[in-house]
Structure formats: C-alpha cells, structure tokens
Amino acid sequence: MAELATIGVYGFDGPSFIRALKEARVSLVLDVRQRRGVRGSEYAWANARRLEAALAEAGVGYSHLPELAPTTEMRQLQYREDERRGEGKRSRTELAPEYVRRYTEEVLDRVDLKPIVTWIGSKHAALLCVEKDAEACHRSLIAARLQQEFGFEIEHLKPDEG
Hints:
- This protein is an alpha/beta fold.
- It has a single domain, classed as Protein-Tyrosine Phosphatase, Chain A, CATH 3.90.190.
- It has helices at residues 14-23, 48-57, 72-85, 97-106, 114-120, 139-150; strands at 3-7, 28-31, 61-64, 125-128, 153-157.
- A 5-stranded parallel beta sheet has the order 3-2-4-1-5, sandwiched between helices.
- Helix 2 links the parallel strand 2 and strand 3 (61-64).
- The radius of gyration is 15 Å and the shape is globular.
C-alpha cells in the first residue's frame, strides 16, 4: 500500500521539521500552500527558498502544487469562522463546514489527482501546509481523497509536544 504523510509548519523549527520527515522516510514534499511563505521570524525557515534549500540538503524532493491550494476567498471564509470561534490560524482545531464544502467542490473535485499519484509512484510523499493539526487544514481533505480513491495509507506528522 502506498504511504502518504501530511505535515504542517507550526510547532516545528527547521531542524525538527527535517528530522520528522526523515524519521517518517519522506522523500518528496508536496507543498499545497497558496502562498509559500509564513509570517513571523520563527518560521522564516519555512519560506519557499529556505525550505527548498533545506530539503535539498536533506535529500528530500520538493514540488509546489498550487492547483491544490485554497483560493484567497476560501481562506478569508475560514479566517472569519476562526474569529467567530475565538481561534487563530495557529490554534485552529477544525475547518469550517462551508470551507470544506467549497474547497471540495471548487478545488478538489476539479483536480485530476491521477498524474500526481503517478508522479508520487513509490516515493513516500508528504503534503505540506502550515497548520499543526491536519484536521485544521485542507491537506487533510486532500489526504482523505487520496486514501479513498487510491488506497494511500495516511500518517499525520506532528511536532513533539514534550
């Protein structure tokens, strides 16, 4: 069975992020962010150029898949729901139902995943976004679709909390 991981940026620093990928035997990172940057100096390592360089040095491939990123409008919808719930992007625990519906219909249902699956092949890939918890990020929706349609075994990587 093919393996697929998901990983977010929040909660990691650069070295622990690379270590988590290596421990999970990830050889390819698929960046599904709309913007390939993260605000705040503590996450400067996750901005596109620095991240790509660190992954290359670690022997991990990288590709940006903007076709799987949510639109700005969808992101704004989620931010409004976060505000209503009293959560921030970095502390979000779940996705808004309307966000899930729109992302599924407007993005996921329109993307042909077969070429991505073929490209992954026997590599152990990881879907990358920013949220710490996969359930609070669209990468969980992508992973669930890949599991359902192509039989991927999914592992959600998280930072050590201890």
